[in-house]
Design brief:
Blueprint: H1 3-12, H2 22-29, E1 33-37, E2 42-44, E3 53-58, E4 61-66, E5 72-78, E6 83-84, H3 86-91, E7 98-101, E8 105-110, H4 112-121, H5 124-149, H6 152-167, E9 170-171, E10 174-178, H7 182-189, H8 193-205, E11 209-212, E12 215-218
Antiparallel strand pairs: 1-8, 2-7, 3-6, 3-8, 4-5, 4-7, 9-10, 10-12, 11-12
The chain binds adenosine-3',5'-cyclic-monophosphate (CMP).
Length: 228
């Protein structure tokens, strides 16, 4: 498959364009520019002024906020078929978060002008944008709930259960999650590395989390085994 056909194939599977006809996809594909982002590279920083939108074709990016000390809070991880940079594209305000490649990543870039043209010609795309934004709002509400109402132990358990269930990874009826370095886990649960180390120790001591080689195992009802 050539580069052009590959891009069309990716766009056909994407959240925004999956219900367009092959001939519409072929026309739209001409408007994209391909971008390769090595692992760890920044696509753009929070507060940057730019308004292009990107579709992730291969790999994965994360949208993060950083405090002045460099502590990171990961808002979302976005993989193949998902879009990123739509907020500044829609409202033309500065970027709401910093976007970093989690692994070597290929993206397709669309300018604001071209996006508006595509939406005018295919209004069903606007409905797909709304659906995706609603789904992101639900996930963000979930994160706000954890940050406001749960202690670090509770947030870790909730995060690990979500990751394990999303990946459908189980062992002996328990949710199985690959171990993460404490700093990375901290950036997913809005806590310091030190607080995560302490909370993990306590969860393992209480038997809520079991260590097995490179994995953590938790019962599906682990949330009921801890204080909120
Ligand atoms: P934009 O503000 O243009 O640049 C940063 C991007 O990160 C943003 O568009 C979204 O694509 C993404 N982003 C910001 N906040 C969230 C969130 N809560 N959930 C998912 N993606 C987000």
């Amino acid at each position: 498959m050539g580069e052009k056909e590959k891009l069309e194939d990716y766009l056909k599977k994407s959240v925004l364009f999956h219900d367009l006809s092959s001939s519409d996809i072929r026309k739209i594909a001409l408007l994209f520019e391909m971008i390769e982002l090595p692992m760890g590279d920044v696509l753009f920083y929070e507060k940057d002024r730019s308004s292009d939108m990107y579709i992730v074709l291969q790999g994965c990016v994360r949208a993060s906020l950083f405090d002045e000390q460099g502590n990171e809070l990961v808002l979302a991880e976005l993989g193949p078929g998902e879009f990123i940079g739509e907020m500044s594209m829609i409202d033309e305000l500065p970027r709401s978060a910093t976007v970093i490649a989690e692994e070597p990543t290929r993206l397709a870039k669309l300018t604001r002008k071209n996006f508006m043209k595509v939406v005018r010609e295919n209004p069903e795309i606007a409905v797909n944008v709304i659906k995706a934004l609603v789904s992101r709002l639900r996930k963000t509400d979930d994160m706000v709930e954890a940050l406001a109402f749960r202690n670090v132990e509770g947030r870790i358990v909730k995060f690990l259960l979500t990751v394990g269930k999303e990946k459908g990874s189980y062992e002996n009826g328990k949710v199985k999650v690959r171990k993460m370095v404490h700093k990375d886990l901290a950036s997913r649960v809005g806590a310091s590395r030190e607080a995560v180390t302490k909370a993990l120790k306590a969860l393992i001591f209480k038997g809520v989390i079991e260590e097995k080689g490179n994995f953590w195992l938790l019962s599906k009802n682990a949330e009921e085994e801890i204080d909120p």
